[in-house]
Amino acid sequence: MKAAVLVFPGSNREGDVAQAIELVTGRKPQMVWHGDGDFEKTDLIVVPGGFSYGDYLRCGAMAALSPVMAEVKKRAAQGVPVLAICNGFQIVTEAGLLPGTLMRNAHLKFVCSDVHLKVETSQSLFTNRYQAGQVIRVPVAHAEGNYFADQDTLKRLEDRGQIAFRYCAPDGTVDGTGNPNGSIRNIAGVFNETKTVMGLMPHPENAVEPMFGGSDGKALFEGLVEALT
Amino acid sequence: MKARVHVTLKNGVLDPQGKAIGHSLNRLGFPEVGDVRQGKFIELELDETDKAKAKARLDEMCRKLLANTVIENYSIELVG
Amino acid sequence: MKARVHVTLKNGVLDPQGKAIGHSLNRLGFPEVGDVRQGKFIELELDETDKAKAKARLDEMCRKLLANTVIENYSIELVG
Amino acid sequence: MSGNGVSVEKNPPVKLPNEPVITPQIVAEHGLSPEEYQRVLAIMGRTPTMVELGIFSAMWSEHCSYKSSKVWLKKLPTKAPWVIQGPGENAGVIDIGDGQAAIFKMESHNHPSYIEPYQGAATGVGGILRDVFTMGARPIANLNALRFGDPAHPKTRHLVSGVVAGIGGYGNCMGIPTVGGETNFHAAYNGNILVNAMTVGIAPTDRIFYAAAAGVGNPLVYVGSKTGRDGIHGATMASTEFSEDSEEKRPTVQVGDPFVEKLLLEACLELMATDVIVAIQDMGAAGLTSSSFEMAAKGGLGVIVELDKVPMRETGMNPYELMLSESQERMLIVLKPGTEEQARKIFEKWELDFAVIGHLTDTERMVLSWHGDIVGNIPIPPLVTEAPVYERPWTLTPLPAVLDAASVPVPKDWRASLLALMSCPDLASKSWIWHQYDHLIMGNTAIRPQDGDAALVRVNGGHKGLAMTSDCTPRYVQAHPETGGRQAVAEAWRNITAVGARPLAVTDNMNFGNPQKPEIMGQFAGAIMGMAEACKVLDFPVVSGNVSLYNETEGRPILPTPTIGAVGVIEDIAKAVGSRLTQAGLGIVLIGE
Ligand SMILES: Nc1ncnc2c1ncn2[C@@H]1O[C@H](COP(=O)(O)OP(=O)(O)O)[C@@H](O)[C@H]1O
């Protein structure tokens, strides 16, 4: 699997995700600067976490307008898979690749902590190594991860199986206790209609080694390798 | 020319920041405070003398960058 | 009664947000944009009918919570 | 170039328009005593200009000159075979094997954090990060030691939430994990909180960068953010008299821009990977003044600074303001000749300001020019050698009487006592703080906050880890400074060993009251003696540190607080142990006295 990781001014988890990809594929992904409207062909595009453009104005707003994102939109339309994590999720929603938006956490504070996620479906490139209903533990680290969409959009997402992950309690119960940021319906990650674009707030790339935060996130990358190689 | 842009959340969109400010004010001894909404206020210097043109350009800036029209409204005001 | 409060950075205080917005607008094809400053805009519902009293209370809210008077200025406006 | 260097030296500086006459009041407002001003006159051989006075004032401030603490700091052991650079540079450097060095330091931002907690704390983190990456290191972890007033005091809540948000706001955006620290509450800090921030970075031992300038004619380059009127040196009156529009030019609080600092970090590391840097120094306290001065002084050279070339954020700025501004996210670099364009490209790629603002000379003078006029001309060596150093009178705190254990009543209700202890603010969980700090970014955090006595961070994907901690128990230091100083070092040592690492070196942050009071100076002296003794016994050298004095409100000092930051190494991180009880049925053993 050939992967490209985008780098914006202010990105800061690009190294983490590159490390995770290298761990499962044995090769370093291509790092793509925000000004590059034209980068090498790849099997997967990753929009990483961080504070692109300082997260000023609105998280992801300025990055969404960069030359590289114009190209990402083009390739996503052609079906190239896009994995968007944390600030990446904010960027792709601003760019219109995924519905909804990420607002300030309900408690207004930055939160860095392990959370539990319920995998909603195994029927996707990104989740094929998990079982539907499985509970995994990965960290979050954000101040604006409070997913919001209007009722029509939410209904459409639910009806079409476009919810990827929901925050839950360790036993899998989806209720307020496991929700770190106030996200509507505990949504932690969503797909586009074709399930080729996935955005999520948690950091599977920081859960790929048992000694460093557990390894529940590793299957996501392994699943991608399996699907895309 | 100077312009002032207000960006506010649309009705019906939850405003966690506004809510938290309201709560805090209530707790700090301002029980008379009801609903609170927080928006952005952006002041721009423009190198443009034609008012109509400036307005059209500002409108474009708002739609492109300053506001997320899925959840936000904006209003433009020209000063001086 | 409804009130609108503007909170803006004092002159001379660095405004990283405004700077970044200005940069972005320039890059996006708005070279006419010069200095940009970003502030907050807060709308409050008040259970108070006396204008003078409302104003005094709002002033207190600004000093206590809404503005950081070391680096920010505020202005209050009563509507309806 | 230095062609005009010679004639330049002979020209007396030009007075600026509206330049006030220097009165004893202006001198006092610059924090210089009459005796210190006499030294200024002797060095200059004439009355200084305002900008020159401002430079003396900054360089001879307690903060930059360590005039009250210097004689005592010399007593700390600073050497060991693994020490590459002890005190005297931007940060301390130790060898951790495999061609790698750990670079670290702690620094205070106490007063600014009390005035504006969010920005004060944020810029404190920004400053210490720059100290570490200036030397060529990529920062891998942050720690912070915080002291607040009584939780019931009306200001405490506001200060705590602002400081914590500011530390998180800056560190999180920079993408450096904040992995540890300490937080205590005591009424003695009601009017004077302590914010001590520590950064640890890693660099190859053969790619470490220093501040000493070299090479006459080499260009002096300014990079980073533009200069504004941020935190201009205390002399309010002087700077307002200086300007036409005093409201506009009021000295203001420094505001941090972590986004720009992140770009500056990446740009500096990119430049450091090339071979063009002669010397580099961040612009911290006293900004352009101390950075240019120190680079020239350390290299035994002179410097010409063309102030009109400095990138400015505001209009109408004057040389005084430019020299004394504390605008954040700026660096000064001496480049090898002819490499300016190569360097410029890197900084422009990262959308940062880049300007050649002068060059090195062989005159050992700092010459300031402003649109072609010389506005300042100071000999460098005497400003350093003639700097005031004080051996302040001190009275040692006597050992308190031993408390008879039998006189302490046995608790009636053990359960209630335990609960009372666990819920007291000093002992209660601090997870509400560190959950606001990204402590996992970089994917190397092996022991997180609360999971061990020290944090443990893997070094660049290998097997090696660095353990780090910050410790001090101010009420011990207050009771008996020597014992308290010893204890703080010993505790840091124990915490490093408790996770399985070998303790290597210390950085410190000496937070004390007014050194002009003999009993406060005695606390300082006692703490240093205790620390020195412990460090010697443990072979635990001090490689960097910071002193913050005059922490008092209305004559009431804080508790003496010598914060100790320590770093240790573990060769195989898989062998580390935390303090979390991971399995039922295991035995618990008590060791020691
Ligand atoms: N308490 C201390 N213990 C040991 N070294 C110290 C102490 N305080 C300051 N130093 C050393 O003195 C030098 C100057 O410190 P400082 O002025 O804080 O550095 P800078 O201004 O470059 O950040 C540094 O090298 C620092 O390590």
TrEMBL record, chain A:
Pfam families, per database record: GATase_5
Catalytic activity: N(2)-formyl-N(1)-(5-phospho-beta-D-ribosyl)glycinamide + L-glutamine + ATP + H2O = 2-formamido-N(1)-(5-O-phospho-beta-D-ribosyl)acetamidine + L-glutamate + ADP + phosphate + H(+); L-glutamine + H2O = L-glutamate + NH4(+)
This enzyme's EC code(s): 6.3.5.3, 3.5.1.2
Pathway annotation from the record: Purine metabolism; IMP biosynthesis via de novo pathway; 5-amino-1-(5-phospho-D-ribosyl)imidazole from N(2)-formyl-N(1)-(5-phospho-D-ribosyl)glycinamide: step 1/2
Flavoprotein among keywords: no
Any single GO CC term annotated in Swiss-Prot or TrEMBL for this entry: cytoplasm
BP-aspect Gene Ontology terms: 'de novo' IMP biosynthetic process
SMART domains in the cross-refs: GATase_5 (SM01211)
Main location: cytoplasm
The entry's keywords: ATP-binding, Cytoplasm, Glutamine amidotransferase, Hydrolase, Ligase, Nucleotide-binding, Purine biosynthesis
Location in or out of the cell: Cytoplasm
Catalytic residues in the record: C86 (nucleophile), H203, E205
Domain of life assignment: Bacteria
Single annotated GO MF: ATP binding
Cited NCBIfam families: FGAM_synth_I, PRK03619.1
HAMAP family registered for this protein in UniProt: PurQ
PANTHER family (UniProt xref): PHOSPHORIBOSYLFORMYLGLYCINAMIDINE SYNTHASE SUBUNIT PURQ
Function: Part of the phosphoribosylformylglycinamidine synthase complex involved in the purines biosynthetic pathway. Catalyzes the ATP-dependent conversion of formylglycinamide ribonucleotide (FGAR) and glutamine to yield formylglycinamidine ribonucleotide (FGAM) and glutamate. The FGAM synthase complex is composed of three subunits. PurQ produces an ammonia molecule by converting glutamine to glutamate. PurL transfers the ammonia molecule to FGAR to form FGAM in an ATP-dependent manner.
Subunit structure: Part of the FGAM synthase complex composed of 1 PurL, 1 PurQ and 2 PurS subunits.
Record-given protein name: Phosphoribosylformylglycinamidine synthase subunit PurQ
Organism of derivation: Reyranella soli
From TrEMBL, chains B, C:
Coiled-coil regions listed in the entry: none
This protein's pathway: Purine metabolism; IMP biosynthesis via de novo pathway; 5-amino-1-(5-phospho-D-ribosyl)imidazole from N(2)-formyl-N(1)-(5-phospho-D-ribosyl)glycinamide: step 1/2
GO cellular component: cytoplasm
Superkingdom classification of source: Bacteria
Biological process, per Gene Ontology: 'de novo' IMP biosynthetic process
InterPro entries membership: PurS (IPR003850), PurS-like_sf (IPR036604)
EC number: 6.3.5.3
Annotated compartments: Cytoplasm
Stored Pfam families: PurS (PF02700)
Main location: cytoplasm
Alphabetic keyword roster: ATP-binding, Cytoplasm, Ligase, Nucleotide-binding, Purine biosynthesis
PANTHER family according to UniProt: PHOSPHORIBOSYLFORMYLGLYCINAMIDINE SYNTHASE SUBUNIT PURS (PTHR34696:SF1)
Subunit-structure text: Part of the FGAM synthase complex composed of 1 PurL, 1 PurQ and 2 PurS subunits.
Role according to the record: Part of the phosphoribosylformylglycinamidine synthase complex involved in the purines biosynthetic pathway. Catalyzes the ATP-dependent conversion of formylglycinamide ribonucleotide (FGAR) and glutamine to yield formylglycinamidine ribonucleotide (FGAM) and glutamate. The FGAM synthase complex is composed of three subunits. PurQ produces an ammonia molecule by converting glutamine to glutamate. PurL transfers the ammonia molecule to FGAR to form FGAM in an ATP-dependent manner.
Protein name from the UniProt record: Phosphoribosylformylglycinamidine synthase subunit PurS
Species: Reyranella soli
Lineage: Bacteria, Pseudomonadati, Pseudomonadota, Alphaproteobacteria, Hyphomicrobiales
